[in-house]
Predict the structure of GMP synthase.
Amino acid sequence: MTSPDKTSIKVAILDLYAGHPNQGMRCFQEILDRYRKDNQLDLSYQVFDVRGNNQFPGIDFDIYIGSGGPGSPLESEGSEWENNYFTLIDQIQKHNDSDHPQKKHVLFVCHSFQLMCRHYGLGTVNQRHSPSFGILPVHQTETGYQDPVFAGLPDPFYAVDSRSWQVIQPNYERLAELGATLLAIEKERPNVEYERCLMAIRFSEYFIGTQFHPEADPEGMRLRLLEPDKKEETIAEHGEHKYYEMLERLNDPDKLLLTQNTMIPNFLNQAILTFQEI
């Protein structure tokens, strides 16, 4: 990508981890640092502690990234930070609906994705029968094949899935009403009765969300998988063979590393292309 005419690009990272230890914030920042260097851009970012300190950016940023985070995406309904969060999102949406030529792109990951699905009424948000954690296949829909954010990814592609909560039972009428499209879905499991989780939705031309973690890298995932509680949790859900298979996948350049090097850079490319078109 060539440098856009816009002199600087500002990214706001909305931290929803509420102070809990995580690998996600490091990964987001490293991806942005690498993208800035690779494309020789004047790109800066700022982190806002949304849940912990009720910190929010204005709408003077160009790109927004909402992180994952712990806990229930239902219990925060009506809280001060969540009201402020949706006020910001609605302001960005209003800006994008206006005649302003420079649109603002937003990526919603995991907890942020679940909040948006609840906010828009796009499906049922509920707690899983047991936590899901690991490097798992993500299957694209027909619409997903055509989405530029997934360009360069195989079907299925592999990503980190880390959730106790999920979105199921898509409301297709509401999706159509908003012009939203389902891009990816959980793998089919014919041996169990549970419904397939929604894994990615394009909410609008400028808003996209994923249940999985496109920012995750092998280094951070290895640390998590080796934690005793995560090892036990993963084996309980997927079996010992799958657990060690996940550890092996960390070294496969066509699995987790490919997703990390592809999806968020594609998202940034699409966002920055709008600056070039002005």
About this structure: Residues 156 and 170 are 20 Å apart (CA to CA). Residues 9-123+138-158+168-216+257-276 form a domain with the Rossmann fold fold (CATH 3.40.50.880). The mean pLDDT is 93.
